[in-house]
């Protein structure tokens, strides 16, 4: 994989070479993406959550295997910075196929009229109901007809992800789940984003290592558990929205 593919022609001469260890990891991820495309073709899709890991995967897919389709779940409660990144990605890589899925308007309207706009703070049950409507139902539509999906999950991210493998059967959704960055550290992800000069969510520079919906995400202190700012009022063991069981 050449760094030149990621840089504007005028900045190629000043670019520093990529660290060989990082280059080897990037090549490995590129191979994973290419072999996934060879195996699954159009039955493969990338769930782009516009977080740091997905910023890296977006760049690698766009430059190395742009045939892999991508989708974003817009819950209707995403931070402005996330939506800004979505438009940046679209304009930088017009060659990619990126589809946005929204919640079912009628179901959401019924829920909000019954429970209020911020019901998720009242109980875990209501929080899961909100995630179900805003994320899980649109995810089902996004995965329809697919045989494998790519995610930006990493083992290190939380206690709920420490058994993650590169490729595993996703029984909940009935297809294979591929996590090409499963064995990456957070530091390596950032080293790659900076080396390849990829666009990323501006909230990452404001203390948000992990970003979800605006009302359910807050900044954390440096060195804190990266996912401790997600659903911070719940126990660490329950801090998943159900997209990844
Ligand atoms: S993260 Fe919060 S706002 Fe977003 S879908 Fe889940 S409960 Fe609803």
Rounded to an integer, what's the Rg over CA atoms? Answer: 18 Å
Alpha-carbon distance between the two ends: 33 Å
List the ligand species: iron/sulfur cluster
User: For this structure, what is the CATH homologous superfamily?
Assistant: HUPs
Mean pLDDT: 91
Task: Give the CATH level 1 class.
Answer: Alpha Beta
Q: Would you identify the CATH architecture?
A: 3-Layer(aba) Sandwich
Structural class: alpha/beta
Account of the protein in words:
The chain has six helices and six strands. A six-stranded mixed β-sheet has the order 3-2-1-4-6-5. The model has no long low-confidence stretch (mean pLDDT 91). α2 crosses α6 and α4 (105-115) runs antiparallel to α5. The chain has a single domain, classed as Rossmann fold (3-Layer(aba) Sandwich), CATH 3.40.50.620. It is globular. The longest helix is centred in the N-terminal third of the chain and has 21 residues, at 20-40. The protein is an alpha/beta fold and 245 residues long. It binds iron/sulfur cluster. Residues 75, 77, 120, 127, 130-131, 134-135, 212-213, 215-216, 241 line the site of iron/sulfur cluster. Residues 45-219 form the Phosphoadenosine phosphosulphate reductase domain.
